[in-house]
Amino acid sequence: MSESVKVIVRCRPINTREKDLKCKCVVSMNGAKGQCSIVNPADEKAPPKTFTFDGAYFVDSTTENIYADIAYPLVEGVTEGYNGTIFAYGQTGCGKSFSMQGITDPASQRGIIPRAFDHIFETISVTEGCRFLVHASYLEIYNEDVRDLLGKDAKQKLDLKEHPEKGVYVSAVPKVQ
Ligand SMILES: Nc1ncnc2c1ncn2[C@@H]1O[C@H](COP(=O)(O)OP(=O)(O)OP(=O)(O)O)[C@@H](O)[C@H]1O
User: Fold this and answer.
1) 1 — pLDDT class (breaks 50, 70, 90)
2) Is pLDDT above 60 for 148?
3) Residue-wise pLDDT tens digits, 104-120
4) CB of 94 shorter than 6 A to ligand 1
5) Atom number, ligand 1, closest to the C-alpha of residue 98
6) Is 167 annotated as a binding residue?
């Protein structure tokens, strides 16, 4: 059985501000081993600290490859009725939107979300003898305030509630069908 939780790490290229500040890249990656190594810039002779993940993607990686390796099997599972979640985590400017939403040019960097939408609707269009129901909601959580970005009033703060059986949920989020 495959693991139920997978964690991958993606390193973005150094940006202009960091270049101007003469920052050096202290990260190296071994994609085959899923390893990420960090050297101490103040002591380059010190052994690097190495961390192992389910996947390690360096600055030249594409979202196309990340989707094929990680998201594709998960979304396939969803179309077969299993639950699946993909989320991006990291400090501001590290590339969460780049990975999830992506850019259209080059096409290899289209994000995980539009790829997943294409994947789901493509599967639905070729599957016979089965009915699918697709819901979507789009929430922003910022400074612990929750907002519905597809709602009529995207400024309205929504309440976070807890149900004894269903768990934590956001009140009054309309789902788009
Ligand atoms: N893998 C990458 N290759 C090239 N550019 C990248 C990559 N990842 C991020 N960038 C660029 O870095 C900048 C910051 O990325 P992004 O906006 O995705 O960060 P974020 O984590 O979503 O930030 P925030 O939390 O502030 O919203 C953007 O200009 C984006 O195009």
Assistant:
1) very low
2) yes
3) 999 999 999 999 999 99
4) yes
5) 18
6) no
